[in-house]
Write a structure and sequence with these properties.
Layout (H helix, E strand, L loop, with lengths): L5 H12 L1 H19 L3 H8 L3 H10 L4 H11 L2 H7 L4 H14 L15
Helix pairs in contact: 2-4, 3-4, 3-5
Length: about 120
């Protein structure tokens, strides 16, 4: 058996993290969602308000704006996944709470007056 080459693993990892590859995978997933609903590209284009050619580019090459991606996701009913992707993580909420607590001043003590030098 041949030992694994760590360089090959890094190349595969990079390929999977490549923005072009990611956008193509997103386009393929959109196509899968569309086909699961039994819709043609023309039907999805009409439901999402996109030109057919724009939808084809989105599905085939992953080309398109984020706004167009969202329109297609909404039409397919998978926009929840996008919302989850960009939701604020709980860890960020707890960090924000700590920062707010740090910024609060303690209440002034009753009966204590500022010294005015008299």
């Amino acid at each position: 058996m041949r030992p694994k080459n760590p360089l090959v693993d890094k190349i595969a990892s990079f390929t999977q993290r490549n923005p072009v590859a990611i956008t193509r995978q997103i386009g393929q997933r959109l196509r899968g969602f569309r086909l699961a609903k039994g819709w043609t590209q023309q039907e999805l284009a009409e439901r999402s308000g996109l030109a057919l050619s724009t939808l084809k580019l989105l599905e085939n090459k992953g080309w398109g704006s984020f706004q167009r991606l969202v329109r297609v996701a909404v039409a397919l009913g998978v926009d929840g996944e996008l919302r989850d992707l960009f939701a604020k993580p709980a860890a960020m909420e707890s960090i924000a709470a700590v920062k707010r607590a740090e910024r609060q001043r303690a209440p002034r003590r009753a009966g204590k007056k500022a010294s005015g030098g008299t």
